[in-house]
Amino acid sequence: MTNAFPPKDPAAVLDYCFDWSGWLTDGETIPDGGAVITAPGLTINPDGKTTQIEGGKVVFWLGGGVAETFCDVSCQISTSAGRKDRRTSTLRIAPRPVI
User: Fold this and answer.
1) 73: helix, coil or strand?
2) Which of 38, 75, 83, 87 is the most exposed place for a label (fewest CB within 10 A)?
3) Where are the domains of the chain?
């Protein structure tokens, strides 16, 4: 499973996802929404946003971050079949150029 996140500007509030759909078996679901964890400096689900499950994908929002840093973002799930797993991706925080 690849979860390559594009760079995030510190001022941006953007949606990201961990895609578990290829890992789940037929009929298996993620009933609890998963837990998204990150380093201090990033805000998970700012501005009243919430984590959602969309067809085996855990979709969440990130805000903040310190420019020119890298932050690990992890997603831990438990499935309807009783399996548990955790995936981590590294997110680069970088200002976007003004166009």
Assistant:
1) strand
2) 83
3) 13-92
> What are the strands, taking DSSP E only, across the chain?
13-19, 35-38, 42-44, 52-54, 57-64, 69-78, 84-93
As to burial, measured by CB atoms within 10 angstroms (0-12 exposed, 13-18 middle, 19+ buried), residue 92 is middle
Q: Which residues pair with 14 in a beta bridge?
A: 62
Give CA–CA dist 85/97, Å, rounded.
37
Q: Per-residue pLDDT tens, the chain, 99 aa: give them.
A: 446 788 999 999 999 999 999 999 999 999 987 899 998 889 999 999 999 999 899 999 999 999 999 999 999 999 999 999 999 999 999 998 777
Phi, psi for 94 (deg, rounded to 5): -150, 135
Is the entire prediction scored with pTM above 0.85? Answer: yes
